[in-house]
Amino acid sequence: IQQVFKQLFYMINAVALNNLLLRKDVCSWSTGMQLRFNISQLEEWLRGKNLQQSGAAQTLEPLIQAAQLLQLKKKTSEDAEAICSLCTSLTTQQIVKILNLYTPVNEFEERVTVAFIRNIQKHLQERNDPPQLLLDFKHTFPVLFPFNPSAITMDSIHLPASLNLDFLNKV
């Protein structure tokens, strides 16, 4: 069950983040607030179902950081440093893309300046990020089956002759 929810939450993360990276109309402060609220609801649900150890919440980390990026101030050099230290699960390309797509929805917000984006790129230039922008939502985690040893010993097993397993020998 834990592995199923980890996979499901990864897919939620990948689809939501990819939509954020491709749609200018959703890159705003208010969307960041909505995302953060919805993610907190998912995390609370995981706690309620005792699935915190499944790793499902960790798969949402890039989306959490993207939501926080949308909510942070984007003006000063200190803001750039804060963004760089906060957004460790996002690649440089993803951070820059979100900042470029950021669209103010009211008069209190402003567009992100080109100088600020260049400052971010300068801070993140030493990162060795993968070149891909979008997350692979078809990625599947390996299924792990726990080993449960049997109480039955091999010498007590009787193999019927009808199975034609004469090539097996007891050692």
From TrEMBL:
All residue ranges annotated as the Dilute domain in the record: 1-126
Entry-linked Pfam families: DIL (PF01843)
Origin superkingdom: Eukaryota
UniProt cross-references to InterPro entries, sorted A to Z: Dilute_dom (IPR002710), Vascular_dev_regulator (IPR052072)
A molecular function GO annotation: GTPase binding
Coiled coil ranges: none
Protein name in the entry: MYO5B protein
Organism of derivation: Machaerirhynchus nigripectus
Gene name, Swiss-Prot/TrEMBL: Myo5b_3
